[in-house]
Design brief:
87 residues
């Protein structure tokens, strides 16, 4: 599953470092999937991680859709009470 399409360097050390970096990334993904008991394919997990890399989301909920309107403020009062808002 190590898909290295293009190497950034042509010398032996550059190629070795890129292969080692790909192996480390693969192992970290496998460790994260195993630690969170995910039942999805490793390639699907890698795709989801690459798509959601800069979003804050739990690994166990990476394949679930986001909550509906998470930025909307929820009321903490009872529905029968009137809320006072200060400007």
């Amino acid at each position: 599953h190590l898909d290295i399409r293009k190497f950034l360097g042509a010398n032996d050390n550059a190629v070795r470092l890129q292969v080692f970096a790909a192996m480390i990334a693969y192992l970290l993904l496998r460790i994260a999937a195993k630690a969170n008991c995910l039942a999805m394919l490793p390639i699907r997990f890698a795709e989801l991680v690459s798509q959601l890399l800069f979003t804050r989301r739990a690994i166990a909920a990476i394949d679930k859709p986001p909550p509906i309107n998470p930025s909307k403020r929820r009321s903490h009062s009872h529905p029968d009470q009137i809320e006072l808002s200060y400007a």
